[in-house]
Amino acid sequence: xxxxxxxxxxxxxxxxxxxxxxxxxxxxxxxxxxxxxxxxxxxxxxxxxxxxxxxxxxxxxxxxxxxxxxxxxxxxxxxxxxxxxxxxxxxxxxxxxxxxxxxxxxxxxxxxxxxxxxxxxxxxxxxxxxxxxxxxxxxxxxxxxxxxxxxxxxxxxxxxxxxxxxxxxxxxxxxxxxxxxxxxxxxxxxxxxxxxxxxxxxxxxxxxxxxxxxxxxxxxxxxxxxxxxxxxxxxxxxxxxxxxxxxxxxxxxxxxxxxxxxxxxxxxxxxxxxxxxxxxxxxxxxxxxxxxxxxxxxxxxxxxxxxxxxxxxxxxxxxxxxxxxxxxxxxxxxxxxxxxxxxxxxxxxxxxxxxxxxxxxxxxxxxxxxxxxxxxxxxxxxxxxxxxxxxxxxxxxxxxxxxxxxxxxxxxxxxxxxxxxxxxxxxxxxxxxxxxxxxxxxxxxxxxxxxxxxxxxxxxxxxxxxxxxxxxxxxxxxxxxxxxxxxxxxxxxxxxxxxxxxxxxxxxxxxxxxxxxxxxxxxxxxxxxxxxxxxxxxxxxxx
Length: 543
Prior knowledge:
Layout: H1 2-10, H2 17-33, H3 37-60, H4 69-75, H5 79-92, H6 96-104, H7 113-126, H8 129-142, H9 147-155, H10 160-165, H11 168-173, H12 179-191, H13 195-207, H14 215-227, H15 231-244, H16 252-261, H17 265-278, H18 283-295, H19 299-312, H20 317-329, H21 333-346, H22 351-363, H23 367-381, H24 385-395, H25 402-415, H26 420-432, H27 436-447, H28 453-465, H29 469-482, H30 487-498, H31 502-513, H32 519-542
Helix pairs in contact: 1-2, 2-3, 3-5, 5-6, 6-7, 7-8, 8-9, 9-12, 12-13, 13-14, 14-15, 15-16, 16-17, 16-18, 17-18, 18-19, 18-20, 19-20, 20-21, 20-22, 21-22, 22-23, 22-24, 23-24, 24-25, 25-26, 26-27, 26-28, 27-28, 28-29, 29-30, 30-32
């Protein structure tokens, strides 16, 4: 096309005006596919100018009805399609205002569903919610089964019943489509933050024979369990979805994050490698690798990987959270706050976005801002175990509100006795009050039906406080078996081995009285084991 255009300029009579227009569009398309977006926009603009001149020529010199000209004019790309491609270029260049301006210039009656869809997404990103809702509704008017448009409307707080009314005619006219109304209901709950009802509704859908083992539904269910703080079921659903679709990428960033939190770094590394083999043009592989780096305490690398993921997908909430957390741990709190705020804008119903922001406020001693944000979350997302615990976390930072924190945590544990974050915070409060026996009872009860590294470690700390040294060592060992990278458990175990308890001292006296029993060699072995732990701790410190 480039060579032909040069020939066209040198010899104007060689190509007709319509052929020159076609050549310009071909050339612009090839530039677009080569990701030369600015150059493509330039050529698309030239093509539109050529089309405008062609239209004027047609008006001045009407068609003679030539049989060869009619098919040619019919095959020419429409101006609307060219403008759509220009808008795509602008979105790739992150020039959303220019993209909106181009599409706004197309008369409403001439807008195709994909143009209205792009406009709706651009309006939504720009915060023009009313215009976005109008465009999504126009898409549904033309394509009643456009599920992305349905999700777009629900995300903009349009009532589920109103959205369902736009699809009711098509649902009634097509057999075996009655599940769609339940699907809309489920995602209406998702976008209002009602995780429990959303989970129940999607479970009812997933059990139906028509949608059994649907990977998209399983992924949504896994994400909802994650949002509800049920990490165990979330991991199970992600694993089930992976088994059904080994090439699944969507949601794998959350899955990788959950594995990393549990200390399963080898699994995280394997997952990252597998995802990179599937595609390195998605944010998810970069986020998974970033989680591996973050939980290995390599924050600079995690920051780079998070930034790369955002570059590939600026709407990746998990990438924003990863980068924000890395910045916070590197002491760049103000930059971290910007990323957490953007994550909240994209996912206003996800509690972990607010948790990250509140942690930044607490890290910078901005307790008042943290309290305002926690109260807003409590009012917006409702009084559930997660929001109660988040508010209690902030209250624990101020001596004046300690009693309020206790009341909030009791309410949270009444709702969900197994909610780990609430158990941890309640244990922290009991530790301050030196109520170690109450803390031990709380932790044993929480560990009755689940196993968690942090809970075992805290139980070990409490057992040390009441001189239960042997069991404390057992708890630290269990914690390290669950997460070998947990440095606090490692330090606790090492301290226990270095500091002799009264029981150990008595045993050592007994050993001194026993000659040739071989027990002394065992004790020497424990010293060498302590040295190994010390070496390992030094290694962790270097990461």
